[in-house]
């Protein structure tokens, strides 16, 4: 199956009975969440990349929101990154990523919600044409409670001594922080203000699933610049 993105003119690639499929976009951080979980658990699957500017009609049939990721296997279809990731963790229980303690799991979700404030500002900074200074300040301020949460846990990962679902939920946007800083240097995340977070970034870089799924900074910069120009290059390097 091709890695190139399927467009409005692309025929539907037939499903293989019993095989899991993820509909993705190579530079989508939300799809990357679910791709990380699939890779971490070594789950056999196939990937169909979608041109999100020219979506096939059969893609809309699977998700009325028109977003990735989507999971499909036989007659089962799911979408939304956290829903898909949690489903995979339940159905494929090897290398369990979600805490067995409901309270701990809920606290993890709260940290992901805290981080979402920084994500909103990341898009304003990285993809905006005129970036207001208050957006940069707001971005750094939004990361402060995330840094504090990691410091309070006192572990190499948000999930503890090893990578967990919370880490895979946060990582994809953090992966893009260096690209954002290449475009807007004031937005750089530095160790003097975020010692725990920058160490976590270093630790995440050693995780095999991250190494398999991540893109380097030049590729992210290229994608962001083409997206800002209105012509996102979904097929960088292909």
Main sheet: strands, sense, barrel: 4 strands, mixed
CATH architecture of the largest domain: Up-down Bundle
Helix content: 40-55%
What is the count of structural domains? 2
- Going by helix content, strand content and strand pairing, the class is alpha+beta
Protein name: Glutathione S-transferase omega
Catalytic activity: RX + glutathione = an S-substituted glutathione + a halide anion + H(+); L-dehydroascorbate + 2 glutathione = glutathione disulfide + L-ascorbate; methylarsonate + 2 glutathione + H(+) = methylarsonous acid + glutathione disulfide + H2O
GO molecular function, one term: glutathione transferase activity
EC number: 1.20.4.2, 1.8.5.1, 2.5.1.18
In brief:
With 238 residues, the protein is an alpha+beta fold. The chain contains 10 helices and 4 strands.
Question: What would you note in describing this structure?
Answer:
Its EC number is 1.20.4.2, 1.8.5.1, 2.5.1.18. By secondary structure, this protein is of the alpha+beta class. It has 2 domains: 20-96, Glutaredoxin, CATH 3.40.30.10; 102-206, Glutathione S-transferase Yfyf (Class Pi), Chain A, domain 2. 51% of the residues lie in helices and 8% in strands. The chain is built from 10 helices and 4 strands. It has helices at residues 29-40, 57-62, 81-91, 102-127, 133-153, 165-175, 177-183, 195-204, 208-213, 217-228, and strands at residues 20-24, 45-49, 70-73, 76-79. A 4-stranded mixed β-sheet has the order 2-1-3-4, covered by helices on one side. A hairpin with a 2-residue loop joins β3 (70-73) and β4 (76-79). The longest helix has 26 residues, at 102-127. The chain starts with 19 loop residues before the first strand and ends in a 10-residue tail after the last helix. The model has no long low-confidence stretch (mean pLDDT 97).
């Amino acid at each position: 199956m091709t890695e190139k993105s399927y467009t409005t003119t692309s025929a539907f690639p037939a499903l293989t009975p019993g095989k899991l499929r993820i509909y993705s976009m190579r530079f989508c951080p939300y799809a990357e969440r679910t791709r990380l979980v699939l890779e971490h658990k070594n789950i056999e699957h196939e990937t169909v990349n979608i041109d999100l500017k020219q979506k096939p009609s059969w893609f809309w049939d699977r998700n009325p929101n028109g977003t990735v990721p989507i999971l499909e296997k036989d007659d089962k279809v799911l979408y939304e990154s956290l829903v898909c990731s949690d489903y995979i963790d339940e159905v494929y229980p090897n290398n369990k990523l979600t805490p067995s303690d409901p309270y701990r799991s809920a606290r993890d979700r709260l940290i992901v919600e805290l981080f979402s404030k920084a994500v909103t500002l990341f898009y304003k900074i990285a993809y905006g044409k005129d970036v207001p200074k208050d957006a940069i300040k707001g971005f750094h301020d939004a990361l402060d409670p995330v840094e504090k949460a990691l410091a309070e846990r006192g572990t190499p990962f948000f999930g503890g001594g090893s990578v967990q679902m919370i880490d895979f939920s946060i990582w994809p946007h953090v992966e893009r922080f260096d690209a954002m800083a290449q475009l807007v240097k004031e937005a750089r995340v530095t160790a003097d203000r975020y010692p725990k977070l920058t160490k976590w970034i270093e630790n995440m870089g050693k995780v095999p699933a991250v190494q398999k799924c991540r893109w380097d900074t030049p590729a992210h910069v290229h994608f962001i610049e083409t997206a800002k120009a209105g012509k996102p290059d979904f097929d960088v390097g292909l």
